[in-house]
Design a protein that fits this description.
By secondary structure, the protein is mainly α. 81% of the residues lie in helices and 0% in strands. The longest helix has 28 residues.
Length: 115
């Protein structure tokens, strides 16, 4: 295996607009302790909603309501909205890279029950 290609990919990611924008916006939103706490709670609730969806279980109403309220609050803020969108863009880039690696290797790494 030629690890020069891996290092080149690493550098390309570091230099990418998606990573630069994400890092800049992350620093910006983490300056405020309240915003940092809201984002942490948003992500906790987001994972809970996603896991409940995957397991076909209902999310408790109060948690879903809290998730929706925090989502609305974060997406209403200019910096927090830009940060969350930048994070989604970077996650999509990472998923694309992972899929390309997966296809090149011939491995099937799909989650059971999701295909």
């Amino acid at each position: 295996m030629n690890y020069d290609a891996v290092r080149a990919l690493e550098q390309a990611l570091r230099d990418s607009e998606e990573v630069r924008e994400y890092k800049h916006l992350k620093e910006l939103v983490e300056e405020n302790e309240t915003t940092r706490a809201l984002i942490k709670e948003f992500k906790r609730l987001q994972i809970m909603v996603q896991m409940s969806t995957l397991s076909r279980q209902a999310v408790p109403d109060e948690e879903m309501q809290r998730f929706q309220q925090i989502s609305s609050l974060l997406y209403a803020g200019t910096d927090t909205s830009r940060y969350l969108v930048a994070e989604m863009r970077l996650q999509q880039v990472m998923a694309d890279i992972y899929n390309a690696i997966n296809q090149a290797s011939g491995l099937s790494l799909e989650l059971p029950g999701l295909g």
